Sequence to fold (218 residues):
Amino acid sequence: MKTYIRSTILIAILPGLLVNICWTPAVQAETKTEPQIVIQSTNQPVLRLHLDKLFADYKSIEGVRGGGNSKKPVGQYLVGQTQYRSGYEKLTQKELIEWYQALFTFQKEHAGGWRGFKQIAESKNELPSDVTLFAEQNAATGAMEKSFIPYKYQAQYAKKWFEMYSKPYRDAVMKDWWINDAILDGNLMIGRVHLKIAPSADGVAYEDAVMSSLQKKE
Fold:
């Protein structure tokens, strides 16, 4: 089955600065090629504002994240149960929010997440022009599949981002556990902001499905 490959030209990577990317036209090929992961560190003012509010009123997230007065250790409790114990859970609020913003930017740049889902769903399941490179082509039959960025690609991004921006990660022993904690926590918190801004039954179902897939490392 023929697929399409897009190559990436990396112009510059500097801490705290956006990465400039030049996409070449799609080239037809007979076999798949792993998409390249590009690191970005981007401020997302609206997301940051809502994340600050969630942490200020921790009661709104302690049911799904633990901590606070919930008598549960910090972790992911929306789907199943995962306690963060890699050292990731010791990051400061500022460090956590920087990671959430970076992950959100990564998803947004590749038409992933709720925004990508809505864009695809509203276009009768046709791929948007900035479709995610990470959708598994053979399985991408619906908006959920096309907008979801699989675990392995989020893990590749997380490893590179934390290696670049986080000394605690570079010093950590259980790096794979750290990355798993970061992926689950990042998606959980991005989902909480989504549902805080635009609550809906469809949104709840979408975020539950995302966390279920990530929990299984799909």
